[in-house]
Amino acid sequence: MILQFKNIPVYYEDDGQGDAIVLLHGFLENSTMWKDLKPVLSRSHRVICIDMLGHGQTDCIGYSHSMSDMADAVLAVLNHLKLKTYTLIGHSMGGYVALALAEKNPKAVLGLCLMNSTYHADDDERKALRKRANQMIQSNFESMVRMSVANLFSSESRTTHKKEIEKVIDQALKTSPQGYIAAQEGMILREDKFEFYKSLKTRKLIIIGMKDPVIEGERILLETEHTNIECEKLSLGHMSYIENKSELSYILNHFIEFIDL
């Protein structure tokens, strides 16, 4: 389905009945990443998947998409669907957008899961890497996308999940160069959200891949040890929905069932 937002189409899917779960994909992904998880969740819940700005079938609104901009597009869909409350599950960049959305409408959020994601802002090294990538993709888009996606998987997964990785790359290559650049610029602008996430009065979960090359899992575990933020560890990399599929499904179902109580 399509919703018009700031003169561009925003694509979303709406399946199932019950309390709403909003699934937010990561950088270079789109709503197809949820194809295995969505049927499981939609048996007992209403599941909304949204292509974020510059990804999938949703167009760009500029050359920098802040997480707040992306959250506004998501919120436009949720308001259009007249949803009063919902649980947010965000993978990677989708987690950053979920945090921005929760800041805009905290009372609506029943649960917020950062899946292979973080409340940390980019450090200077990460910002420099993003800026360098934005320069390089202008002349070598396909090879940069291929490398970016492959590097998110653990070394074991690059051998055991070759076919799945190729499918992820195929979807990533559908992202326009403008969408790539705008998302990177937006992620550079992110501020640290740890204090906000701690104070948010809702159920909170962080899913950590212990071999994730881009998320500081050990640091998150230390910082959240004496908070009301729950953490679950998985054995492999950044792409838990492929690398640890069955364990992830169990953890998310348990998280959602607890919210329903």
Automatic annotation (TrEMBL):
Signal peptide: none
Keywords: Hydrolase
Domain AB hydrolase-1 intervals: 20-216
InterPro entries named among the record's database cross-references: AB_hydrolase_1, AB_hydrolase_fold, AB_hydrolase_sf
Matching SUPFAM superfamilies: alpha/beta-Hydrolases (SSF53474)
Listed Pfam families: Abhydrolase_1
Entry's Gene Ontology molecular function annotations: hydrolase activity
The protein's name in its UniProt record: Alpha/beta fold hydrolase
